[in-house]
Amino acid sequence: MPVGANGKVSVSPYLGAVLLSGKGRTWHTPDGELVPLKSITWRARANVRDHDGRTRRVEAWGRSAAAAERRLQDKLTVRKRSASTTITAETCLEVLADYWLRTKVDNGKLAVNTRQRYRYTTEGYVVPGLGGLRLRECTVARLERWIADEAAEHPANARLSLTCLKGMFDVAVREDAITANPARSVTPVPATAAEDVRALSVPEVVELRAALAGDRKATAADLGDLVDLMLATGCRIGEALSLRWHETDTAEHVVYLTGTVVREKGVGLFRQDTTKGKKPRGLLIPEFAVQMLERRSTAVPDNELDLVFPTVHGGLREVTTVEAQWRKFRERHAEWTWITPHTFRKSVGTAVERGADIEAAAKQLGHARSAVTAKHYVAAPDLGPDHRAILEKFGRSH
Q1: Confidence class of residue 83 from pLDDT cuts 50, 70 and 90?
Q2: 225: helix, coil or strand?
Q3: Are both 24 and 102 inside the same structural domain?
Q4: N or C end of the chain: which has fewer CB within 10 A?
Q5: Distance (Å, whole) CA 130 – CA 146
Q6: pTM for the full model?
Q7: 27: pLDDT strictly greater than 80
Q8: Which of 172, 2, 181 is nearest to 80 (CA)?
């Protein structure tokens, strides 16, 4: 027998310790004495090969043959679970998905937003699409077809779904439920072509800051000051909202980005004490941002969380709330409809790359690889580099 499997179940009638013989509703002792049905107890028995490789006999009793067999099956199920076979080849994918989310995603070291994206994708796409398949039925071909169909409609979701499937099947391999991870043989979903990066020019920034300063609702929502901080650092909006006064040093022109604001289902809104890049970073800020912080230090009431941008009640502000306030500002100023809070990060990346180089821009934005900065955060120049002196030699006459 395979490890964890059981042999054929046998069910026998007894009167006390005496094995009875007969069939149907007629049973008697070895001496031929007829035994009433209500006096009979039934024993169900099967051999099971435990996970140490040894075969043992397991039995259960009941007032009927069916009851004894049910109790035996319950004991066998408990025995298999306690022997650590949480996941087997017969397990449905939806069970594996739940196990993976609970044991590897929720209890892992992933950022809160990453955990939530994995759960949303798994529960919203993977389980509805594949959850009823047993693991042995999850062939490369089946997964390939499903991922391809998803990619045709939602390429980003298909890409993340494949990432989740790889994680799930890695668990199944470690549990000895399957011998290889089928998701790792599925054709990767190609990345969608990156849209052209659009960044604010210096004249546009001047004009936008003036518009923010002259908008009463924007001023009440601190949008101008938030934009100044993002333009001075290239930080994300959640990082700006989590900035605390003790992480600023206006005398030295420095702010330290150490966390971000997130909302987690079942937990609520809180300050996550790590940034998306995991590493805190200190950034030198220009004079206009220093002046903004010094002004706020006297204007903003003290709050228990020591926040630079608290709510009116001194608590954390929601990223989604600020994004909604920004959309309202754009509705009032149609010329800025193309700008999102992330545009300021792109504008910083572009400005630093033009003034220094791509490596400096990557460090400013907290990227581990400059390729990410170049692809997503630096606008292409309108005019190529001036290499006329180099190329002029092609036009020389003999």
Answers
A1: very low
A2: helix
A3: no
A4: C
A5: 8
A6: 0.62
A7: yes
A8: 2
